[in-house]
Design goal:
heterodimer, A: mainly alpha, MetI-like fold, 4 domains, two-stranded antiparallel ribbon, 29 helices, 2% strand, globular, B: 370 residues, alpha/beta, Rossmann fold, CBS domain Like, disordered C terminus
Chain lengths: 685, 370
């Protein structure tokens, strides 16, 4: 008995044994609560719906003057509030959009439609694309140097030349509003959590859930409260992009050395100065990672936000994917990635700016960049004017290249896809069938064949072995919620897709990471690769796999694996590289060979970090499983997608979202507790 | 603002009227960490027994510290890690709030001060140097030094101008646009010193400023520090765990152990008359000739005695004059600042200081260790 209480491996074996026995002895039957729990929470979605309806349509009506009908109206306060927010955000987006693309809506806001129709001259002209591209390049040059200038210029030229200008600028205008709002909101909440322990205690669980909630789940309540359109997309994006910013702000502020804060105080900072000029800049590294995350999340939401009416690249990409126009989807995908990278690099460079106090600058030197921009602007306008004389076919290539009138490589990609299909059709098909018939379906059946009691035993047992009774109860609580809804089977399908992907990703990630961590150069290389891949919004991964495998579970699994391998690899490399040099030396002097060193020094030392990597892999995999619904799965994600188009989808969508989040949180609880225990045991910070 | 205007001038007048008024005065200062520290203080009636408090989940940081620091004085708080020396310093600068007691800075009670007054005090009168330098990583050397001035609201131009002067003062000219990460430890601490002096504070706090530096750099920085102090004559509170450093720099030393000040005296008195066993252990290995002045070993003038022509000043350290005293062949006269003879020093006494045993039981140890 002593060995059992000491040896966790034996405990896990015993647990597995019990689990298998439970699976064998409990028969599959409808009414048996050991097989499936009764759906006691089935009424929850309806309750949520009613609550939301009450909030929106009945709660606290206030009198509001409506200028159109020139009378006072009774409008519920919540509705009034959301209207105000919607109006403001929509106005901001339209403003930026019309600065870039031209239009009349901003002018209408300050006058009226009648006035705008009467005065046809009152149109805001679009900026020629040359000016925007030149401006982006100039900004890159001013903030960083020639490298960024060339990159930004080329990226915007690509977008224009390939005929994606209009949707790209729509997307850009949307991101340029959503990202700064998310950053400010995240920063404010992060600071609040740093200042007040109660705030932290309130925010922490919300952040945990928010970060694992599937993207789609945000859409439904947002749709109900804010309607459909660019503003709704922006609000959903802000809600989704803010949590990582809060997290990283808090993390960064907590890492500010006590002495630096004290130095700020002793230099006579007021608390605002301390925050603004000492603590936030010192926490800059983490906060910037947060900004980067926000930009990535915003672009990841581009496609998803298009489901509730955000215009731009996302919408086009969705259509292209649905029509299986892979080449077009690829080009749009590249545009999104380019915008993501340009924004990311520009924001980083902006935060790392430096002032030169020694230069004694003249007026032209000080306003150099403004003057250059004016030159670019004039040149662009002149060029656009000349273009209007040259191009007589109705559109001006130097002004705005209309949608899909640019160069396109689509036939090439389509031909490539056709060639792959022609050449590898049978082998791809065979692989596809083998994977589905011999691997995926059996595993799926096995998952669905688990009695609910066995699942609980396994999960809570693992929780108990790792973190004692507390972990077991937390894990049990999360599962209980899912089991009491009517979607337990769907959740099992989600879990099955996720498990397969995590196993494959984890294995690949740890092997690749280990190999690459062996020397400095390859480590840096693989980390750069991970950085680049992480910049791609998740659904981009669906494009190439659809090229090869069409709309099948195989595509989803492969997309998940590719996407989820990134964190597994990154954390493995980081973990292994962070093993102190002195330990390597100590190992060498003890006479270990390479394999021994890996197994007995590096692996145990970096295990906690790797466990966190696997945790991230789970989060990535879950989010991708749900996005996989876009190309057809039959799990929770599909149901969430469906509830988007239902009239009373809020309740369903939210509860389904919680189910997905709770799967993630249950696994998170076990892995994080384990990692923290190992960290404490190894005396790692 | 009105309260500040009314308090500040009144303090200045009292300071100038009575120059011996202490700049810093601590009255029974306690700092006890732990949630129920206040309750424990009440229950025990202010008698702090570290053991009893620890049982209640409290940690005693500073235990009944009372002392004064006078204008232009350099007081060193010396103690090993965990002795409460940094905590005491932070109580006085009010980076942490003392649990009990009173602390006066130039007559103002700092513990009852409003936050706004405190900020004003720090902006005008206090400078502090930190062990880990605590430079702002995102600011250049120049910006770091200018920071306290800019926080006060000085214009960029003025503050940068002043910061340039400061970089020259601490010998960092030419590195103004470096970031802290591009500097060595010694250079970073020079920036820290320059920053703390930028507002021309009257009171200068230094929290183990040289502990993170290599021994050679540390020596160099101590010299630099003495040079600066020679020019600036600030009132200084200096925390260190290095007894040699304390002896080298201090006017007076307070030795702390477990939050209690064991002894507070001049370096010479501490070496000659250690108050407790703990203090004595520190003094054992100290070369006395480097601490003691010649007048500590002089005898009264004996007119019958024939003395050498050599005269030594009474405040000279023994180490600096020992060679000439021993070479004189006769007793040597000791003179004060005005050249009057105040005593005679005999070679035997000097030899005893240089080579003699510190205490009787010490001799055997030293013989055993060749």
């Amino acid at each position: 008995m002593d060995t059992l209480s000491e040896n966790k491996f034996l405990q896990f074996l015993l647990l597995l044994g019990i689990f298998i026995v439970l699976c064998m002895i409990i028969p599959e039957s409808e009414g048996n609560p050991l097989w499936r729990l009764p759906p006691l929470l089935a009424g929850l979605p309806l309750m949520i719906n009613n609550g939301v309806d009450y909030l929106m349509f009945d709660w606290l009506p206030v009198a509001v003057y409506d200028p159109d009908i020139e009378e006072y109206e009774q409008i519920p306060i919540m509705r009034q509030f959301t209207r105000g927010v919607s109006g403001f955000i929509l106005f901001m987006i339209e403003l930026v959009r019309e600065l870039l693309l031209g239009g009349v809506k901003t002018i209408v806001t300050f006058t009226s439609w009648d006035w705008a129709t009467e005065n046809q001259w009152a149109r805001w002209p679009a900026l020629p694309w040359t000016v925007v591209a030149g401006g982006a390049a100039l900004l890159g040059y001013a903030l960083s140097g020639w490298g960024l200038a060339i990159f930004a210029g080329v990226a915007f030229s690509y977008i224009a030349v390939f005929g994606q200008w209009e949707p790209s600028m729509q997307t850009l205008s949307f991101v340029l509003i959503a990202a700064p709002v998310s950053v400010c909101l995240g920063l404010a909440l992060g600071v609040w959590a740093y200042k007040s322990r109660i705030a932290e205690a309130i925010l922490n669980p919300i952040l945990n859930v928010a970060q694992i909630m599937p993207h789609f789940s945000y859409l439904i309540p947002v749709m109900v409260f804010y309607g459909i359109g660019d503003h709704a997309g922006a609000i959903a994006t802000i809600i989704f992009a803010t949590p990582p910013m809060v997290r990283l702000t808090l993390l960064g502020l907590k890492k500010v050395p006590a002495e630096v804060t004290e130095a700020g105080l002793m230099n006579g900072c007021s608390s605002w100065q301390l925050l603004r000029r000492v603590q936030i800049p010192t926490a800059r590294r983490d906060i910037l990672i947060g900004v980067n995350q926000v930009i990535m999340q915003c672009l990841a939401m581009v496609v998803i936000a298009s489901l509730i009416g955000a215009k731009g690249l996302g919408n086009d990409l969705l259509i292209a994917l649905n029509r299986l126009r892979v080449g077009l989807a690829l080009e749009i995908g590249v545009c999104i990635v380019l915008i993501a990278i340009v924004l990311d690099r520009l924001s980083m460079a902006w935060a790392n700016q430096q002032t030169d106090y020694f230069a004694n600058q003249s007026f032209t030197e000080r306003h150099k960049h403004l003057l250059i921009f004016l030159v670019i602007f004039c040149a662009g306008v002149v060029l656009a004017f000349l273009g209007s004389l040259v191009f007589k076919e109705g559109f001006n290539y130097f002004y705005l290249i209309p949608h899909n009138k640019g160069i396109t490589t689509e036939p090439f990609w389509q031909a490539g896809v056709d060639w792959i299909w022609d050449t590898f059709f049978y082998s791809l098909k065979a692989f596809n069938e083998w994977l589905i018939v011999d691997v995926l379906i059996p595993i799926k059946t096995a998952y669905l064949g688990m009695p609910v009691v066995a699942t609980f035993t396994l999960a809570m047992g693992a929780g108990f072995i790792v973190g004692g009774i507390r972990s077991a109860l937390i894990v049990g609580g999360f599962l209980l919620f899912i089991a009491l809804t009517e979607w337990w089977d769907r959740a099992l399908i989600t879990a099955y897709l996720m498990t397969i992907a995590v196993l494959i990703s984890g294995t690949i990630g740890i092997i690749v990471g280990t190999l690459c961590a062996q020397n400095k150069l390859s480590s840096r290389f693989i980390l750069t690769v991970c950085d680049t891949f992480q910049t791609f919004p998740s659904f981009i991964y669906l494009i190439p796999v659809m090229m090869l495998f069409g709309v099948t579970d195989t595509s989803v699994v492969i997309a998940i694996v590719v996407y989820a391998t990134i964190p597994a690899t990154r954390y493995t490399v980081e973990g292994l590289r962070s093993v102190p040099e002195s330990l390597h030396d100590a190992g060498s002097m003890s006479g270990v060979n390479r394999l021994q060193r890996y197994l007995s020094i590096e692996l145990p030392m970096s295990f906690p970090h790797m466990a966190l990597g696997i945790n991230q892999t789970v989060v990535f995999a879950l989010s991708m499983v749900i996005i996989g619904a876009l190309i057809g799965t039959d799990d929770l994600g599909q149901l969430i997608l469906k509830s988007l188009s239902e009239k009373s989808g809020v309740g369903n969508g939210l509860v389904l979202g919680f189910c997905v989040a709770f799967i993630g949180l249950a696994i998170d609880q076990i892995l994080r507790t384990w990692a923290n225990q190992r960290k404490a045991a190894l005396d790692l910070a | 603002m009105s309260t500040e205007e009314s308090t500040t001038p009144s303090t200045q007048t009292t300071t100038s009227a009575n120059s011996t008024q202490p700049v810093i005065r601590c009255e029974s200062v306690y700092k006890i960490f732990g949630d129920n520290a206040k309750r424990m203080m009440r229950e025990t009636g202010g008698v702090v027994d570290a053991g009893k408090f620890e049982e209640a989940g409290c940690i005693v940081g500073v235990n009944n510290a009372s002392f004064e620091v006078y204008p232009g004085e350099l007081l060193i708080i010396m103690g090993l890690s965990g002795s409460g020396k940094s905590t005491l310093l932070r109580c006085i600068s009010r980076l942490t709030d003392a649990t009990a007691g009173e602390i006066f800075i130039e007559g103002q009670d700092i513990l009852t001060m409003k936050n706004k007054q405190l900020i004003e005090l720090r902006r005008s009168k206090m400078g502090m140097v930190f062990q880990s330098f605590a430079l702002l990583p995102h600011k250049t050397v120049l910006e770091n030094i200018a920071f306290p001035l800019q926080v006060k609201g000085e214009s960029t131009k003025d503050s940068i101008e002043r910061a340039k002067q400061m970089t020259e003062l601490v010998g960092l000219a030419g590195r103004e646009n470096y970031f802290p990460r591009q500097l060595s430890g010694g250079q970073q601490q020079r920036v820290g010193i320059a920053r703390s002096l930028a507002i021309e504070p009257d009171i200068w706090f230094l929290d183990e400023p040289f502990s993170a530096l290599d021994p050679l750099i540390r020596k160099e920085m101590q010299d630099e520090f003495l040079r600066l102090q020679g020019v600036l004559s600030k009132t200084i509170l200096f925390v260190t765990h290095d007894f040699d450093e304390a002896l080298r720099l201090a006017d007076r030393i307070a030795i702390m152990k477990d939050g209690v000040i064991e002894q507070l005296d001049t370096p010479a008195n501490i070496v000659l008359n250690p108050a407790t066993e703990y203090v004595r252990k520190f003094t054992e290995e100290v070369p006395r000739e480097k601490v003691l002045r010649i007048d500590t070993v002089m005898d009264p003038v004996d007119p019958a005695e024939s003395v050498s022509d050599l005269k030594v000043p009474q405040d000279a350290l023994i180490a600096t004059v020992a060679e000439s005293v021993l070479n004189a062949g006769k007793p040597v006269s000791v003179v004060n600042d005005n050249g009057q003879i105040v005593g005679t020093v005999h070679a035997t006494k000097v030899i005893k200081i240089l080579f003699g045993s510190r205490s009787d039981n010490q001799t055997s140890d030293q013989v055993e260790q060749p």
